[in-house]
Design goal:
The protein folds into two domains: about 110 residues, Rossmann fold, CATH 3.40.50.970; about 130 residues, Rossmann fold (3-Layer(aba) Sandwich), CATH 3.40.50. It is of the alpha/beta class. The strands form two sheets. Strands 1-2-4-3-8 form a five-stranded mixed β-sheet. It has a five-stranded mixed β-sheet with strand order 5-7-6-9-10, sandwiched between helices.
């Protein structure tokens, strides 16, 4: 990580690959105290255009030290941009955008999405960092999801549609900066909000999203905003316990139904 910071300061655009998000702890000083702060500390005279590819997420029975979702750590650091693609198109588009960006970008990859297939974005059309995507339009509830949980949220929305509950699903795509405008517009229409991520609920991205919506659109909500995520416990290695640990379609469905109680 330190070598990459130096290379970026020398005019290159290095890409650092961290095999597991859990291992980024070994490079947090260089990432958080150097890469993220140099532009500010030099009053914009220097920049650090580097991309940090980080694999994370639950799947495969890898256990507590190889399965964490740590996006909230990076979200908390001014100077870092953070993206988390959920589709093949955005995996390509956000990677191109991250490499071209003049600031350090943490590019979060969920290993459970590695085998997905789809059309990739052309290199000349990068996905804009800082923009969310409406992947399913709806009018009753807004579900904001990130990374692998976008697929889960869409499946939950299709299941709920069988009961005439119309769910709008937003793919956050950019964890930092957050596209507050798209979220605000959706929540003001549906008047209900559920946030879904795979990370533990405590202190997670969902807390930031709910707090942000409460600050700007609280009067529009007709029921409390809810969070769906993992319990506050290490990820188990047992495949059976792992399936119980990770949030699933039924968890999203339950949260949506709870927000609909005041329908």
């Amino acid at each position: 990580m330190g070598l990459a910071v130096g290379a970026a300061l020398s005019g290159r655009r290095p890409i650092v690959e961290v095999m597991f998000a859990d291992f980024v702890t070994l490079a947090m000083d260089q990432l958080v105290n150097h890469a993220a702060k140099i532009r500010y500390m030099t009053d914009g005279q220097l920049s650090v255009p580097m991309t940090i590819r980080v694999q994370g997420g639950v799947g495969g029975g890898f256990g507590a030290q190889h399965s964490q979702s740590l996006e909230a750590w990076f979200l908390h650091v001014p100077g870092l941009k953070v993206v988390a693609p959920s589709s093949v198109k955005d995996a390509a588009g956000l990677l191109v955008a991250a490499i071209r960006d003049d600031d350090p970008v943490v590019y979060l990859e969920h290993r459970g999405l590695y085998w997905n297939k789809g059309l990739r974005a052309p290199d000349e059309i990068p996905t804009s960092i800082g923009t969310a995507a409406v992947v399913r339009s709806g009018s009753d509830v807004t579900v904001v999801a990130v990374s692998r949980m976008v697929e889960v949220a869409v499946s939950a929305a299709e299941k709920l549609a069988e009961d005439d509950i119309d769910v709008e699903v937003l793919d956050l795509r950019s964890v930092a900066p957050i596209d507050w405008a798209t979220i605000d517009e959706s929540v003001r229409r549906t008047r209900r909000l559920v946030v879904a991520h795979e990370a533990v609920v405590t202190g997670g991205l969902g807390a930031e999203l709910v707090a942000g919506v409460h600050a700007t659109a609280f009067e529009a909500l007709v029921s409390p905003a809810l969070r769906v995520g993992a319990p506050s416990a290490p990820v188990p290695a047992s495949p059976f316990l792992e399936r119980l640990y990770v949030p699933d379609i039924d968890d999203v469905v339950s949260a949506v139904l709870k927000t609909m109680q005041e329908r």
